[in-house]
Amino acid sequence: MSDTRIPRDFYQRPADEQQEFLENTWCNHCQQVDLGMDNPEEYELKGRVYIEGRCLACGATVTTELVEEDD
Ligand SMILES: [Zn+2]
C-alpha cells in the first residue's frame, strides 16, 4: 500500500452530491457536525476516498471519509 494521495475530481460528482458533502462535515477543531466546508479536494489514499476541505466556522482542515458501496 502506498501513502501517496491520488487526486480525484470532486467536481465530477453530481451537484446535489457535492452539496451534501460540503454540508455534512465533522470538524475536529469545533467538535461540531455540519458546519460546512469550502475548498473541497478529493483524493484516494490506501484504497479509501476522502474529501478534504476547510471548515466554514474556524478554517481548520476537515476531512470526510467516503464509504462507497459496491453492488
Ligand atoms: Zn471548525
Walk me through the structure:
By secondary structure, the chain is mainly β. The chain has one helix at residues 15-23; strands at residues 6-8, 26-27, 32-33, 37-45, 48-55, 61-66. The protein has one domain (6-66). Helices cover 13% and strands 42% of the residues. The chain is globular, with a radius of gyration of 12 Å. The two termini are 24 Å apart. The model has no long low-confidence stretch (mean pLDDT 93). Zinc ion (ZN) binds next to loops.
Features:
two-stranded antiparallel ribbon, binds zinc ion, globular, 42% strand, single chain, 71 residues, four-stranded antiparallel β-sheet, mainly beta
Strand/helix succession = EHEEEEE
- Distinct compounds present: zinc ion
Classify the beta-strand content into a percent band.
Answer: 35-45%
Major sheet strand order: 1-4-5-6
Estimate nothing, just give the exact number of structural domains: 1
Distance between the termini: 24 Å
SS element count, helices: 1
Question: Helicity, in percent?
Answer: 10-25%
How many E-type strands? Answer: 6
Mean pLDDT: 93
Largest sheet: 4 strands, antiparallel
Which value, in Å, is the CA radius of gyration? 12 Å
**Spans of 5+ residues with little confidence (pLDDT < 50)?**
none
Large-scale geometry: globular
Structural class: mainly beta
